[in-house]
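__Record contents__

***
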Amino acid sequence: MESIVGTMVGREREQQVLSAFVAASGGQALVLRGDTGVGKSALLGHLADLAAGDKHRVIRAAGVEAESELLFAGLHQILYPLLPYIDRLDDVHQRVFDVVFGRGESAPPSVMTLGIAVLDLLSLAASQHPLLLVLDDGQWLDASSTEVCGFVGRRLAGSSVKLVVGLRSDVPSGFDTAALSELPVTTLSEKASEQLLDLHHPGLDARVRRVVLDEAQGNPLALLELPPFVRDSRVGRKPGEPFGYTGVPLPLRLQHVYGARIESLGSVVRAELLRGALDGVRSGTSADHSRGTRYRMVDAEEAAACGLVDIDPLSGDFVFRHPLVRSTVVQMATPNERRAAHAALALVHGDDLERRATHLGAFAVDPDEEVAAVLEAAADSATRRGGARAAVAWLTRAAELSESHAERSRRLGGAAFIAGHAGLLDQAQQLVRSDGEPGRDESPASVVASAYGALFEDGDVRSTQRRVFAAVEKWRDSGAQESDEVLTRMVDLLLAINQYASDEVWWERSHELLGSLGHLVSPHSRIYQNAWGDVVRRGTGVHERIEEAFVGLHHLEPWDVTRLGVAAYHVDTLSHYRPHLQRTVDREVETGAMAAGMTMLHLIMLDQIGVGEWDEAERTGQRCLELTTKHRHVLFAHHTRAYLGLVAALRGDTDRARELQAAVDAWARPRGVGFLTQIADAIGTTTALGEGDYEAAYLHAIGITPPGTFQPYAHQASRTLLDLVEAALHTGRSEQARQHALAAQQAHLPDISPRLALITYGALAMTTTDPTEADRLYHRAETHPAATTFPFELARIRLAHGIRLRHTEGRKAARQPLALAAEAFERLGAPAWTERARAELRATGAPARTSSAHLAALTWQERRIADLAAGGLTNKEIGERMHLSPRTVSSHLYRVFPKLGITSRAALRDALGKFPTDQNV
């Protein structure tokens, strides 16, 4: 029987577009979208022939539904023919591809990181001949591969690489939002349908011909395949009798057609086809040439004679003639036949944990603890690789196959836990309900899953706090001597709820409870316990413990990464870990732990606020708000609004800041979400300070903590130290300001975090009456090694220093710190603070735009890079600290040198040293 890909009829428009696509000088991407059997594969084959004739290298691949949950399965197939080029890339890119090909244990890369690596690989592969990537059945590609292909497809301009993707219009796909150019592939016209039918089936009976045309409705595959079936089925049928499948969707009719051929095969051949179909053997000439452990069909000549399979001309392997053949083979098999095929495939994939688990899970019927353990291990593997949704499916199946109620409950709870973190809140609730049995108490795993749902969806801290606390107490009272994953999850959830509630009584009760558990509480949970609650009293040494925990980064679950990130925020070392968060967040948001991805966005935004990247923080916040709203994470949505309110307040957008402040406060205060009400008060404080309304700022600040102390378990108490001190000084409350600064010193805040060190020294300098002591403390603050990491706080301290110098040492002495402060505020985008500093600068007799000599010509980023380079850091080390590539750092330094009048890196220190020391890091 002829191959489906043959003479093209009625596709002149499409052929013209594809010819232009191949002839185009630059790289580009194109999506062919149409119904099943409409001819997408034929057009893709035509395009591949055109490109090959035009000296393109053509790589073909195809998505398979059986692999749609396997992380990077599609990308593995696309890139496998390019493996020889990977060894020619740098070490960083090679490590990225090691993850894709399962050859390394590095953390999974983000979509952007992997996309850039793929672009570099494709450019290298296309350096001698243009490259065409042809992807059929793209709707079955796994989500991670789809994201990367979309990223790459949007960035091919100027390259010698082209990408074309075939998609079924009736199946949703990640390519739907990839913003790639599309060529719709519609059914054939009546005239073209007749031409195609007559070309392939000449001499048909007129009535049969009419039935085929009516039933095919312009679908080329139906026009090619239906005639023999219709011809045979007309025997004994009365004229005018309606065709038996009228009204049945076309793919089902074609499956029936293929079914008749499959039924004619011997059992051995049918079993061979079934094994190939269940393992995702490709269709057409887009077969997977990577071999690997893919099942290879043999002795299928009988199926080839029936037109069910073809022989791939390149590999010589049997491949299915059309995807519908593959699906029909599976649908026609009996349950026992499928189980036997899955059992055989589990043996084929003995060294591939996730594939083996897939087939074992489909093979098993009765409870089987050994199979359940394999499925659970596959779920753990998938979670670490960013495949949380696949992990939910594997854990659910593991629960079904568990031999004991306890194991079933634990695994269902684990599946619900991961589902909740993956943004599948409805599924998480269903899993929790399925764990219930009459007469049995709620399991600890179910408590965790249901409490997370209540917390995420409505910010219910009160009832969830009581339930989780009681569950941990019950665990302790049971006499358990060993910790396990469920206890750790309960403890971590209790700490998270306590953080949101910010209630001193509950925190103290929790400390007592966790103290009674002793070694059963994990070291990571102890970090959270100290950092999330009262960092003033329990934060000393936390940053070293966080650093030690991050050493084992590759073995951490995504929620462990975010929890440690939150701890790092509380001790102001988040910048050290932001590069990993940025590499990971896209993967978790798209295919992994959605809730962890939302928290990663919060953490990225917080670091952007801290280091002065306020425009970027606004964009990150808007992205997070859209995501949290879409997935009904109401708590995280208001949490995001709170951070957006802080950004608005810092930038002087007072109307928006107050609007967001009111919205957050109105939602959080009745629910007892103290964490957010504190941020609302911080928004009010920051807004009022920007406006110069110091009385209002003071009232907001003491709503967070009274002066002279730091309210226990109020995370904003120490963060707003400088706000309260400034507001107090400007309202004549010098005594309260001094008490508060001294309280910070007595609490040893400088030992807890670099930011707290900076603002403590600044507050002490602002409030002392001893000029010598003030100079010493201002110098200590402004020359602190981490001072430039927190540019807004540093600029405020310099502003206060300049004002003091103008009054104590004269106008000339004040100009330098005031100029630096004004420049910093202007770069940050804080107009009210900029004008305040400019006004003070004018009061010194200096022009409003007085700058700090050469340094003023540097951008904020250039200043930071110059300081770090002068301190001896390499481009790579600077890039890691500032989240830039080494090449970008080099470009900045290239621009810095002429601005400073130097020609080499060695001269940086001297050039910067010509200015007063308070200009250096």
Observations:
- Residues 93 and 117 are 6 Å apart (CA to CA).
- The longest strand covers residues 161-168.
- The first helix runs from residue 12 to 23.
